[in-house]
Amino acid sequence: MIDTHSHIYLDDFNEDRNEVMNRAELVGITDILMPAIDFGSLEQMDRLSHPTINFHKMVGVHPCDVKESLANYEEKLYEYAKADDIIGIGETGLDYYWSTDFIEEQKSSLKIHCKIAKALNKPIVLHNRESTDDLLQIIDEEQDGTLRGIWHCFNGTIEEGKRAIEMGLHLGIGGVVTFKNGGVDKTVKELPLNKMVLETDAPYLSPTPKRGKRNEPSFMEYTAKKLSELFNIDLQEVINKTTENSESLFDLRNFK
Fold first, then answer.
1. Distance (Å, whole) CA 105 – CA 113
2. 172/4 Cα distance (integer angstroms)
3. Distance between CA atoms of 244 and 234, rounded to whole angstroms?
């Protein structure tokens, strides 16, 4: 399995990161993709290693970290993003839940990330919280036939999911699909598995039955099992298909 969205580099894992990685190995995790929160995330990512798990870096600035100034922002992001070991751009996107003070700055930041993703032909990873209409509108405007990426932590409607897929996005399926009263499971089962990838968002959003605990890559097995139930297919088929989707989207075979 491939965890396409994990912040395993954060201090939350400093005390037991090796044990966390070993548990991930036991459930079959082979690759962990790490979206950045800010430019400082890369230094944290560079400290990680494991004998059997491949770590893959992205670069970007989380919308909640976008404030007043975007001076020299595009140039700095591009310089980091063009490195050969950077497999994707993000996480970027929009977040109107925590604050609406910098909405225009968030939109500008998202457009900059899209521009760089297209210029470098690298996938983009999109955070979205209470901002779906604006997010999809910007992606629609930025789509020139080359933009591709993931709607991270997908929790939209069937119609929004279909629209995102039509615009070149995959849907990142994480712990929320296992929540009993969230309704995401009912939506996901009506959308195509061949446009889905697995993710954890560790240390956040632990799946049932681990809700309330720190999330970690090994917990992704619960998300995979939930998808096998929703689509009424064998668990291995879910793993095979989502792995294939992830490898294709990020061209991971060139990063082993």
1. 12
2. 8
3. 16
Tokens of 8: 């395993």
CA distances from 171 to 40, 50, 141, 168, 197 (A): 27, 28, 19, 10, 6
Can you give the CATH number for the domain in which 36 is found? Answer: 3.20.20.140
| Residue 129: C-alpha distances to residues 33, 64, 100 (Å) | 21, 10, 11
The domain total for the chain is 1
> Which of 171, 150, 173 shows the shortest CA–CA distance to 162?
171
Give the predicted TM-score (pTM) of the model. 0.96
- In the chain, the amino acid numbered 249 is L
Q: Tell me the one-letter amino acid at 4.
A: T
Full domain range(s) for residue 202: 2-254
- Give per-residue pLDDT as tens, 90-142: 999 999 998 888 999 999 999 999 999 999 999 999 999 999 999 999 999 99
Q: How many residues does the chain have?
A: 256
Cα–Cα distance list, 97 to 124, 129, 171, 177 (Å): 21, 6, 20, 20
Query: In angstroms, rounded to a whole number, what is the distance separating the alpha carbons of residues 45 and 8?
Result: 8
